[in-house]
């Protein structure tokens, strides 16, 4: 650590104890982004890095990416396994087997219910964090036996669900009924957010957009710079008419998709515009108009491109300072 810079205070929560990490911060499992270099950097910073399974084209590629991550860090990291209905489903059983065979013991599931995967993972000592966009789904996930729930508010990138409930309501509503640790997701990008999440009843936060703008994120610099320049109004909600809402960056492509569907179009009318291959080109080539790409409202809080370690340490320091100021106000102390 550079001279004159203090190490961040530890914020011990049920989440840090569960995952054996130093800080209650989890990196979002982002498609095309959750690769070894980012996951390892986040874990090395004392948070939880996540490798995204389906970014890898085959289970064998995932095995190699996990081993590459392990060469970069000896600290805990997890694997995201997103379960979505598709015409040709990925071989989930093979990805599951690779995760276990490679010795990974933390899995973040998202999308559909984790129920089909619970028995296998539980039988191999894998702790599951399931991402939900509603209290009712979080309750069901807890009943299925997940180790923790990531509760995803309307502010998030990607799929926020169809209830449009923001984190300020969703997090405490979930905390009122759940007994497992809660990871607050959607809209978090600085230490004030971490402090707020802890006060609302969460045990930590999940951040995608903030880590997308880290030095180690394997995306083009143009994407990172666009996030730094963007405001909270620079996203679009697409697929609303299809009941499959997704929050993506505002660009010519997302504007076109919104217009087509608003005029009565159907998915085949926009399928070519929203293909994953086009979105991947954005991240790899830096062509911000090549396709749709996910980003959250928290981009309004992202003001620099920084190493993952600096991001984590800054957020923890800010959270500690925020909590200290709030306590002083309550106590009528000198900072009141």
TrEMBL record:
Task: State the SUPFAM superfamilies in the record.
Answer: Inosine monophosphate dehydrogenase (IMPDH)
A GO molecular function for this record? nitronate monooxygenase activity
Q: Which UniProt keywords apply?
A: Flavoprotein, FMN, Monooxygenase, Oxidoreductase
Question: Quick one: signal sequence residues?
Answer: none
What protein am I looking at?
Answer: Nitronate monooxygenase
* Organism expressing this protein natively: Streptomyces mangrovisoli
Its taxonomic path starts at: Bacteria, Bacillati, Actinomycetota, Actinomycetes, Kitasatosporales
């Amino acid at each position: 650590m550079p001279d004159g810079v203090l190490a961040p205070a530890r914020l011990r929560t049920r989440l840090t104890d569960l995952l054996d990490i130093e800080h209650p911060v989890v990196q979002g499992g982002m498609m095309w982004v959750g690769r070894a270099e980012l996951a390892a950097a986040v874990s090395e910073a004392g948070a939880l890095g996540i490798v995204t399974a389906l970014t890898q084209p085959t289970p064998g590629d995932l095995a190699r990416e996990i081993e590459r991550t392990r060469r970069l860090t000896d600290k805990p990291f997890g694997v995201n396994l997103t379960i979505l209905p598709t015409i040709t489903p990925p071989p989930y059983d093979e990805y599951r087997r690779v995760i276990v065979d490679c010795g990974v013991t933390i899995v973040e599931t998202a999308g559909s219910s984790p129920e089909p995967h619970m028995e296998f993972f539980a039988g191999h000592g894998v702790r599951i964090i399931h991402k939900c966009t509603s209290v009712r789904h979080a309750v069901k996930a807890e009943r299925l036996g997940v180790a923790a729930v990531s509760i995803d508010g309307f502010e998030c990138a990607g799929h926020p669900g169809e209830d449009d409930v923001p984190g300020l309501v969703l997090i405490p509503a979930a905390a009122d009924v759940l007994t497992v640790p809660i990871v607050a997701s959607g809209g978090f990008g600085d230490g004030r957010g971490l402090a707020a999440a802890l006060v609302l009843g969460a045990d930590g936060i999940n951040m995608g957009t903030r880590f997308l703008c880290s030095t180690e994120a394997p995306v083009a610099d143009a994407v990172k710079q666009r996030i730094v320049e963007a405001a909270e109004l620079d996203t679009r909600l697409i697929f609303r008419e299809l009941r499959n809402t997704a929050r993506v960056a505002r660009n010519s492509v997302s504007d076109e998709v919104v217009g087509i569907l608003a005029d009565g179009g159907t998915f085949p009318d926009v399928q070519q515009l929203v293909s994953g291959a086009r979105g991947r080109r954005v991240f790899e080539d830096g062509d911000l108009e090549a396709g749709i790409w996910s980003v959250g409202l928290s981009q309004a809080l992202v003001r620099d491109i920084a190493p993952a370690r600096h991001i984590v340490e800054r957020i923890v320091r800010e959270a500690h300072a925020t909590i200290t100021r709030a306590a002083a106000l309550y106590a009528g102390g000198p900072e009141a």
